[in-house]
Amino acid sequence: MFMFYSQYSTRILLSMVVIFCFTCQGCKSGKDVPSEMFELLRSSETGILFVNQVDESVDLNIVTFEMLYNGAGVAIGDITNNGYNDIFLASNMGKSRLFQNEGGFRFIDITGQSGIQTEGKWASGVTLVDINNNGLLDIYISFGGPYADPGRRANELYINNGNGTFTESAREFRIADTGFSTQAVFFDYNKNGFLDLYVLNNGHGDVPPNVIKPKLLNGEHINTDRLYRNNGDGTFTDVSTEAGILIEGYGLGINVFDINGNGWPDIHVANDFLPNDIIYINNGDGTFTNRAADYFRHQSYASMGTDFGDINNNGLMDIITLDMLPESNRRLKQMYESAGYERYLSQLIMGYEPQVKRNVLQLNNGLTPLGHPVFTDIAPLAGVESTDWSWSALFADIDNDGWLDLMITNGLPRNPADNDFSKIKMDILRNGVFDRRMMERLYDELQNLEGIFERNYLFKNNGDLTFSNVSPEWGFREPTYSTGAAFADLNNDGRLDLVINNINQEVFVYRNLNENDNNYLQVKLSGPGHNRQAIGAKLSLYFDGRSLHHQYSVSRGYLSAMATPVHFGLGSVTEIDSLVVIWPDDQKQVVSTLPVNSVTNVVYGEQSLFPVHYRNSAAVKKPLFKNITETARVDFVHEEDNFIDFNIQPLLPHKFSRTGPGIAVGDINKNGLDDFFIGGAFGQSGKIFLQNADGTFTGQDIDVGPAYEKDTGALLFDANGNGHLDLYIASGGSEFAPGSQYYRDRLYFGDSSGTFLHSPDALPDIRASTSVVIAADLDNDGNLELFVGGRVVPNHYPQKPESLILKFSDGKFVDVTDTVAPGLKNTGMVTAAIWSDYNNNGWQDLILAGEWMPITVFENRGGHLVNVTENLGLAETVGWWNSITAADFNQDGYTDYVAGNLGLNSLLRNREEGPVQIHINDFNGNGIVDPVISQIIAGERHPIHLRDDFMMQMPEMARRFPTYASYGEAALGDILTARQLNEAQSYSIHTFQSSIILNRGGKDFDVKPLPIEAQFAPVYGMISGDFDGDGYTDILLTGNSFSTDVFIGRYNAFSGLMLRGDGTGNFEPIGYDESGFFLDQDGKSLVTIGGLAGGKRVLSARNDGRAEMFEIVHSDGYKQLRAEESETSAIITFQDGSQEKVEFYRGSGYLSQSARSVFLTGMMREITFFDSAGITRTITP
Description:
By secondary structure, the protein is mainly β. It has four domains: 41-323 and 358-415 and 450-523, Methylamine Dehydrogenase, Chain H, CATH 2.130.10; 524-611, no CATH class; 625-788 and 795-833 and 842-908 and 989-1179, YVTN repeat-like/Quinoprotein amine dehydrogenase (Methylamine Dehydrogenase, Chain H, 7 Propeller); 917-988, no CATH class. 8% of the residues lie in helices and 35% in strands. Strand 43 and strand 44 form a beta hairpin. Helix 9 packs antiparallel against helix 10 (436-446). The longest helix has 12 residues, at 419-430.
């Protein structure tokens, strides 16, 4: 949300939230969606006549109090104990009201007799709790608003007298908190059986909330939340300080559940503005520790409402947090301006965690080998990242199909994030004294400021980690200013109905009309001791080999609460095996007789109780991989500089200054053990690591003195045929002007002692920013040729750089590209390459991957390379490819390929109406290349770039589009003329999916996407091999990218992934707890390397991070068998007679060269090796 100040204070806060984004999400059509799911009932039908009326004035408006339209909550529960769920509606300026449910969607307003009185105060959040454990729901209301008088902000507790009346008792209970409260949560944090209280605050401060400053971590800020301990005698004590609840925040949303799975309730706080969200992990001793930086890769910037639930039915709770990213291109471009990369770096330096300006859906991937959960944001992939100025998020199974759907409210009567209004406002504030006259002038300007009047959102869960926007199909058609919301079965028919609190509109009451035949189960809990509501209980429902999971919390979404039975949709299931309840006191109870389509009462202790013992780590199964970085003494940390490419080309989609490092593997000192080289960064030498007899490594710098080159690809090979491994290092990056000497690649001749001598004259004077270098005997003459891939022309993206074929002749390499491979030199922005005999004719073909390129194949025809991409059916595979590697995945004797792409978890996406495109030209005639990237939004093509960035690239455009609104209303065809577009060079993306490319007999290829877990982020590192010893080839992947601009946000949802192959070309993702392969941050190169006694190891490098080495735990069953220098492939025959082709590469994956070896297992019967001349040797293990 947005910042505030006080209504009647003499001070004014001269700040605006600077928000940026990338682009918005297109709506997906639902699958099997009924024509109507919800019916909006009129107040005349329900008897619920309520409007949260918020009126603005000269004194009170979004300039003087920016939280004016933050709205109010809804609480639903059987407050009157008549068997129906009643509704409490909070009001900011008026009277909060309580409506008794009489059944049949008829309600009676009982506010007058209830004794509940909130007029004169600013009610925001509301929750329900049986605080005195008498079986009656009490009401706790949080108050905030613009008032300086603490008395007008005191929270209230209404004790239910059981006769329709209530007694306000907050002071007696000592919880009349006078902070600027937004919501409260009751839960038993110390597990003593009494419900404690957490109060979420969003208060004023002397420093604007978007100013970068040292974090306030010691409870000194007025907006710090509070924790009250239940003393068990009808009173509470503020224990915030001793419990460690001390971090500042502008709290708008809160979740309380067992986040790390250790049995203790934890707290997730969604904070608005720059202060980060908080994950207070319960230490089990009465204290909490913030672990947000460990659990979340990034967070929403303006975090608002939040909820949790198990969206993929794997027993792990996922989290959604809302922000304000619009779908509309016009409003998106009006609201967001670029704050600059320097500000982003300043935030990181000051200790703030990375943030994005959109919704985040934090998927819980389970525990790391260290025992803490891994959350990765998949909101763009799921299709839920852009829902406008959003408030409440609620997971619920709306259609009873067994998958949690998602409801989101949004809207705002005035949009203070409008950049055109912000400039007007700041001009007024700068030019005068803040007096009555200025206030009136600002108020007059406000009358021209539009709001966000859009329909709310309903998303159907497709059961595959994606959601379909079914808002109009399911009955959300009315534009609204909606805030708090709550689901409940209001008429006891087994379908969840919905109540939404609106600003300046009648409350929405939706009746669920779901007419499918899906079944359901509702569970009403009666918990132990003084927690009769069983808050914090965990439920698992088992049926038909599947399971559903829920953790019970009353305060949910935004400012709202649902003290209702737990609802499970069952789909077509008619028989339930069991329900397992883990009560808040860690006792487990199993219920086995559960009729569907009913409300089941589960009472603590009615069935036998068993103690639950929580594990403290992820060690449930013995993992396949073990991290041995420390024991192997792999001591290397890549140290990247923070060069800002965007300052030179503002329209870049990502930086090119952080592409390394690469890794090359080989037996450098001929001791029979694999060694490796890993590249350095600007100002950092790359390093040689020699393997010792005990499996450890000793490192030494390759260069002495300053190292200005940026190492990218690397290759260990015998360049001059003297039997010693030499080292080629590609020089990449974008820090220097084109043609700089620091882009010269380097060749070092080795002497098999670990010493390398740089030979500057051994390579042509090529000054291109290069990426990959790989070697093969192109012409079958017994000597190795090199392919060197050009990555980028610095400052001229996306012009095609030069790629080369180099041949060793007379003691040095010469450029033979035009002779042996016409058309190869300017083939594109190459990121990866592999020499591979795709058609089994004995000649090494060249396969390339790159940005704005298809997977490109140059067939080797007798030592000459011919582009056959189109002939093989690969012309329409243009993507942002990062890497490629190979194996015979389906064991048909032909080499298949797997290629890493951008993935689907991005704001860039193709749509049915058209693909992502780029148009390239000097559009303004200033001699600078202008790369304009566009995509379809709401059926019309728009540039993805924000106005400020576009104007920095082409300043004269500011005259044509003087306002953010004018730029936002313009399509690409309005910004660039038809002639400019026709004369421009352009490319279109066919796919962003990382894919498997199956070889169909050397004649063509079948391209299929990898599993969705491989689409979470850009894939870079990739290797293939049988890692689990089942005889089938698997794939290991690493990735992410921290090269993006601020408004895109880091691609960081990847943590490394093992894909288990089945020998047919299909793959199954394997979790961290089973694989043990966990590699987060900015993963780049990835190689296989031999270890002790032929053991199989994996080495991964990160950009600006530590290299990590893993060993296969059962690798003592492996035996490393090296290919001879001349051997290019082998056929493995397994014990069951099946066969698999293996090739030996000098470079593959991403900037990677793995060991040229076969790792023998007991499943192999024999291995036959081949060289290019067809000479063979056979090994029997």
